[in-house]
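Attaching the record inline, Q. Sequence:
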Amino acid sequence: MPWNAKDTMSLREEFVLLARQDGANRRELCRRFGISPQTAYKWLTRHKQHGSDGLADISRRPKTSPRLTDTDLEQAVVALRREHPCWGGRKLSRRLQDLGKPLLAPSTITSILHRHELISPQSSEAATPWKRFEHAAPNDLWQMDFKGCFQTSEGVCHPLTVLDDHSRFNLGIRVCSEQRYRTVRAQLIEIFRRYGLPVRINTDNGAPWGAARQPGQLTELAIWLIRLGIRLSYSRPYHPQTNGKDERFHRSLKAEVLNGRSFHSLQEAQAAFDCWREVYNQQRPHEALQMATPTTRYQISPKTYPEELPEIEYGPNDTVVTVSKWGGAISFHGRDYKLSNPLAGLPVAIRPSGKKDGLYDVYFIHHKLMQIDLREPAEAGA
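Structure, as predicted:
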């Protein structure tokens, strides 16, 4: 039977002493001690050369290990991980490469993190890759939303976030004391002046973007964006994944900036956001971008922000009507149609839908508001 590890040394010495006796049957001894002739020869040779010390186990670890990570490089991995505790092996590998360090495989970095106990079981479970549709060019679509509010010593903070769909470039994390139209507009003007205008913006259906209680009706903010020539789309109710990239951005913002941290003022929070935004855009490798940074994929929009809103114009074949200042409605063929209170006093266009007689589409500039079907019976009192 195999030797027990507890008394291995004494058994080896006993075997050697017996085997060295004159007339000893070494093969029989090997059978009795449960070892092979090759092992017996090894122990006899070592004992002859080094005495009893030669019977101890010799480490199989090589004297040199070209595959072992250099100590300085390993410390660089640890330092970068502690600076960015939410980054995994792939992001750390790419960032170290960007900093001029030797290339390390993500799996090697993961092993280093485990050795230094820098990966929790919860982090391993959360490291699930997401795959999403991506628009073809920068500024084709921006995603916009508020990150859930939090309390500072001086009041409530509502972080407004705007993200480019193609590049994941963050166009702004802006501290807001509330979520009203005027505040959001002021923040967006600064973003538009720097980066230009997108083709389309997607938001959820809540205020100030949409009218959650009256779907399809435009808010003041929506009207302003449409007048700038921006197309609007809204996430389906209870489907935040429609704005998925901004939602994922919020997860990173929470994990890397907000968790376990408090702020005295809105200004202090804004300073923290500005600092992290630089890291996110310029340093943090993005797995969906093949480990590139968002800045390398983004270009400013060629469509500049107009300091004055352009005049509203419609085609010569459109029927142009002004929205009533009382009730936000229009009249067409003796019937009244509710549009939106913020549209009061503004012109809209009514044009045949081109499908069937009696069908008309109502537009505010490029945005379709509703469809009128004159073939349907008029409602009582209309």
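Residues 5-55 form one domain. DSSP finds twelve helices and twelve strands in the chain.

More tomorrow.
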